[in-house]
Please model this.
Amino acid sequence: MTQTLIPAPLTAEAFAPFGDVLEATGVPDKIINQGLCGRWHDCARLDFGDGRAGISVFKAEPRTLPYRLDMVERHPDGSQAFIPLSQCAFLVIVSADDQGCPGTPRAFLTAPGQGINLLRGTWHGVLTPLQDPGLFAVIDRIGPGPNLEEHWFDTPYRVLPGQD
Model:
């Protein structure tokens, strides 16, 4: 038996308990570079314990909907930002903490060009692009010691396509 999730569009308001939506919408905070560049300033709450911020490049295999969610993970020592290197949507799954375990997951579907920053300790699904190339810049903690906890669900979830 599986449980069902329907992804909602990713919005800053809905995602706020889990992290930040990274996007260039509305009016920029600053105009720089001789008036030719808008800057949306300080968009993510980066938070690292022991260690430093690092930028890595990930290449993830595309997945399809319906998608089977049987595991989530979290990083207790640092936030983690995913910035797509293409204009492709991806699936984001997050869950509030419930006494050290994930609560009921929530699924979001990004719009092309949106990235996310997961707050430190946020339960989340694995990187789930929905089409090639699956390339992301990832900003997260680089440092000593373990920074990964996994939780496997007794009953998996099935993420279905949203209603158009």
Residues 3-159 form a domain with the Jelly Rolls fold (CATH 2.60.120.480). The longest helix spans residues 12-15. The helical segments are 12-15. The CA atoms of residues 92 and 160 lie 13 Å apart.
